[in-house]
Each structure stands twice: as C-alpha cells, then as structure tokens.
Design a protein that fits this description.
The protein has 267 residues and is mainly alpha-helical. It is built from 13 helices and three strands, in the order βααββααααααααααα.
C-alpha cells in the first residue's frame, strides 16, 4: 500500500492501489497505461509513487469505456488526445455505441431463447417454415447449446415424442398460447396483484398445465425449477423483461407460491 502523502499543493489524489480498486482493474494495468503514455498520473509522491487526481480518473473512465467497446489502446489514445475533441462528445459516442450493443445483445438473447424452445419441442419444420415462424434467425444455429441444456432428460425425451409430428400451425398455436399467458401475467403484475394472490397463483397453475399438455409432464418441483431458471438465466429473463419490467421475478414468485399451496416442498 502506498503510504506516501500526496503533494500538498494538490487537492485530492489517490494511490495506484486505490485507483485499481475504484476502477476494477489491476495495478499492473495502470502501470502499463502509464508506460505507454495512455494514462500518466498527474503527480508523484516524494518517494516517486504514482498519484492520480480527478482529471486522471476521468480519463481512466473514458479509457475503460472505449476498451469495453472493443477499441484497441492505440486508437483510444488517438481519440482521447485529439485537441479538438469535446469531452461530452466522447460520452455521446460511447452512449450511442453501448446502446447499439445492448440492442444487438437483446436480439441475440431473444434468438437463443426461441431456438432453445424450438429444439426442446422437437419442431419438425422445413427451412422455409422455420424462417416464417421464427423470423430472421436460424434456430439450428443454437441447437447444440439447447441440447446440452435439455438433452438426456425425461422431459426432453417426452417433448421430442409429443412434438415429432408438429406442423407449422401447431407451433404457431403453441407460441400464441404461450404469449397470451405471458401477457396475462404482465396484466396481473400491472394491476398490483401480488404474486401469491389467488389470481396470480391460478395463472401459474394454468401455465404448469399448459406445459403438461404441450411439452412434458411438469410437476411442481420441475415447475419451480423452471421459474428459477427464468430469473437465473439472462436469456430467459430478457424474454420476460421485454413483456414487462420485473415480469421474470413475478412469474417465478407466482410459480413458487402456487407450488407451495399444492404442498411443494413437502413439509
């Protein structure tokens, strides 16, 4: 730990160890940034130790933003050292790039979630029908991951048997019913009904029976496991969050409450 006192003429400064802790980077990284001239600390202690001021921290924040966006260090240096650059312009550019990345990730998460559902259900569609039903992504692209998650289970085997003869219209009907259930969950949440209200629990029971009827025999233990997955797996969470903010947790809690009123887990 750097115990040297900062230059008395400076306002506030921080040691390299403190800055590493603030920023979530290693001391080695900060040393490297100093060595290549990307982030040279504004002062040194009497003993020659690096001391970072507020301006240094602002520059480090900009560096880390650009690094997160995939910019190489050389390009980051050029951007930050441009004498005509407005600091606010850096923030505007980064905000636009981060927003674009977030949108791309959301689309990818939705594609993965739908592909997993398709694979899990053993849908037997032609290539043309796949794109008609699923939109502009290829479900087979994510099939291997889906099978790693679901393959080998009794539920997987049962869903494969049930859906072996499904047609495009069967899958569309499944999607419509699933989406209708999700919208009804969202409406319950928006109306202020608690997840353990009779109405929300009954909707959770309807969801479980829907899975039993269309996918596999879904007991209360399995249903609770699915509810936990909706919250733990960001791809499923994102799916529900697009329907309504907070919906993944709401659905999970309604499922857990419904299972409890039916005696799961056993006392």
């Amino acid at each position: 730990m750097d115990v040297d006192t900062p230059n008395k003429e400076a306002d506030v400064s921080y040691s390299v160890g403190q800055v590493a802790g603030f920023a979530g980077v290693t001391v080695r990284t900060l040393h490297h940034y100093d060595e290549i001239g990307l982030l040279v600390p504004g002062e040194r202690s009497v003993a020659g130790h690096r001391r970072y001021g507020d301006a240094d921290l602002d520059r480090l924040q900009q560096i880390l933003f650009y690094r997160e966006l995939g910019f190489p260090l050389e390009e980051v240096a050029v951007l930050l050292d441009d004498p005509d650059a407005d600091p606010n312009e850096h923030l505007r550019r980064q905000y636009a790039l981060l927003t674009e990345r977030a949108e791309q990730l959301q689309k990818m998460a939705a594609a993965v979630q739908q592909a997993m559902e398709a694979r899990k259900m053993g849908i037997n569609l032609t290539p043309e029908e796949k794109f008609e039903v699923f939109g502009d992504f290829d479900p087979e692209q994510y099939a291997e991951e889906a099978e790693r998650r679901w393959g080998g289970s009794d539920a997987w085997a049962e869903s494969q048997r049930r859906a072996a003869s499904w047609t495009k219209e069967d899958w569309k009907s499944f999607k419509e019913e699933q989406e209708a259930l999700e919208q009804r969950f969202a409406a319950r949440m928006a109306s202020g009904d608690a997840p353990d209200s009779p109405e929300a629990m009954e909707l959770a029971e309807e969801h479980r029976r829907f899975l039993c009827r269309t996918c596999y025999e879904c007991g209360y233990e399995m249903h609770v496991g699915l509810g936990e997955m909706y919250v733990a797996d960001p791809r499923f969470t994102e799916h529900y969050e697009r329907v309504g903010p907070g919906l993944a947790v709401y659905v999970r809690d309604a499922i857990v409450a419904n299972a409890a009123r039916h005696g799961y887990p056993a006392a």
